[in-house]
Backbone:
């Protein structure tokens, strides 16, 4: 059931694809703002630079948390692409996130603490819809295993439109895009400096950046799952979703955390739960 | 590899500038000049920064702040003083509260003249700084110490418990 080859491909290629995607992200963003923007390889230069810098750590535990964050994020993606259990994937992702938060708490700095608090609030906001996505997919396909879900003959998005919408809403949080870039942002110097990543520098920050690339590829893989019955449609959907996120990022201002949590829960409650109830009813009848 | 030159992140500190130079630095980030083309990002966080950009003359209140920001930046790092105020104190040099240029407190690598410095010359100064940054990195890799003397003013005791 679990196949190691796709997992290996993921571990090897995800940083390349993720880095390129964030390079494209910056290029497209610059064009949307009427600028030329950096080369699409800029994220690789940035990470290369970070690994060239002095390894300044605020204390001995920080590095442990960063490495754990990296390992569990890679594990999450690898398990997903290996065709593993979707529920386990969702919880492993949360575990990775918790290590990042612990790393931010390890430093004695108000900015990093505020960032960590907000990161936790974000986890709280998107976690219900992540779990409901897994549940919804199980109700349709009868399995939590990604390898079985892929074999389902119908487009999941047709039966789970509400869940998919809710997932898209939460995706903006996971990708740290405006309006939900409340825990760390390139544009919030006066507010939180750099939020969760304030106290990380040099190689540690570089590793966090690489971990974000892994997460990006995993999340786009999750989007693909909703269209898995038709490969071509799936790839088109992933591209559209990615561009949509960039568009949302560039047209929205950062909101307060209250609105982020409330709106995500409201969307989850309304569209996802209604979707599940209707589905349960249809299955019973 | 010289990734350092391709991805310089800056932190900008306004010592006691009249705001003229600050506006010109911000102009560099606008679509007109768009320094992000070169991978330059204004981070606002000393721990992520490679280039310390200071505008305005240093006064008695903030020289410890400047020293503190400088110390928080991981090596290799360079300092660019923007405008005549940051270079020497400029027109404020004789003021009772002004210590002088930035080099009174921390070692400066590049001086960008002008009042206010034009965006073109600011970009030029940053590009010069990139060369020095790379030199410092190779020196560190080769194990050659390129220690710069810390100016005397920086080692004085803070007045008024700043
Ligand atoms: S150099 Fe001129 S423009 Fe710049 S801070 Fe000094 S007085 Fe203002």
Residues:
């Amino acid at each position: 059931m679990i196949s190691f080859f796709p997992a290996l491909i993921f571990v090897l290629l995800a940083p390349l694809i993720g880095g390129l995607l964030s390079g494209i992200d910056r290029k497209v963003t610059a064009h949307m703002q009427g600028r030329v923007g950096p080369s699409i390889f800029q994220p690789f230069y940035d990470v290369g630079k970070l690994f060239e810098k002095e390894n300044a750590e605020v204390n001995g535990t920080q590095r442990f948390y960063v490495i754990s964050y990296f390992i569990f994020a890679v594990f999450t993606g690898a398990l997903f692409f290996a065709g593993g259990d979707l529920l386990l994937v969702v919880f492993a992702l949360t575990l990775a996130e918790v290590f990042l938060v612990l790393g931010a708490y390890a430093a004695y700095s108000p900015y990093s603490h505020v960032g960590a608090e907000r990161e936790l609030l974000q986890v709280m906001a998107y976690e219900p819809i992540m779990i409901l996505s897994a549940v919804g997919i199980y109700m349709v396909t009868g399995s939590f295993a990604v390898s079985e879900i892929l074999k389902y003959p119908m487009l999941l998005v047709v039966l789970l439109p509400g869940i998919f919408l809710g997932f898209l809403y939460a995706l903006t949080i996971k990708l740290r895009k405006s309006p939900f870039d409340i825990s760390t942002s390139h544009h919030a110097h006066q507010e939180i400096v750099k939020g969760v990543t304030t106290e990380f520098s040099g190689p540690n920050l570089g590793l966090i950046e690489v971990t974000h690339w892994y997460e990006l590829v995993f999340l786009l893989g999750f989007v693909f799952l909703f269209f898995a019955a038709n490969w071509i449609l799936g790839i088109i959907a992933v591209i559209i979703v990615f561009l949509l996120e960039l568009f949302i990022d560039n047209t929205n201002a950062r909101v307060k955390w209250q609105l982020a949590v409330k709106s995500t829960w409201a969307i989850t409650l309304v569209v996802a739960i209604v979707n599940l109830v209707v589905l349960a009813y249809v299955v019973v009848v | 590899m010289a990734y350092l030159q391709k991805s310089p992140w800056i932190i900008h500190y306004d010592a006691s500038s009249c705001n003229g130079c600050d506006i010109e630095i911000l102009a560099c980030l606008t679509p007109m000049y768009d320094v992000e083309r070169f991978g330059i990002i204004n981070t606002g966080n000393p721990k992520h920064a490679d280039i310390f950009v200071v505008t305005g003359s240093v006064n008695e209140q903030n020289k410890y702040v400047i020293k503190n920001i400088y110390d928080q930046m991981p090596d290799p790092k360079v300092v660019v003083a923007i405008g005549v105020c940051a270079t020497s104190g400029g027109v404020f040099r004789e003021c009772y509260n002004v210590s002088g240029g930035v080099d009174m407190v921390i070692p400066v690598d590049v001086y960008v003249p002008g009042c206010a410095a034009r965006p073109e010359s600011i970009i030029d100064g940053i590009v010069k700084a990139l060369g020095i940054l790379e030199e410092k990195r190779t020196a560190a890799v080769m194990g050659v110490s390129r220690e710069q003397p810390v100016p005397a003013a920086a080692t004085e005791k803070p007045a008024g418990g700043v």
About this structure: Strands of chain B lie at 9-14, 41-42, 51-55, 58-59, 78-82, 98-100, 110-112. The pocket of iron/sulfur cluster is lined by residues B 17-18, 20-21, 55-56, 83-85, 90-91, 115-116 (CB under 6 Å). The longest strand of chain B covers residues 9-14. Chain B has four helices and seven strands.
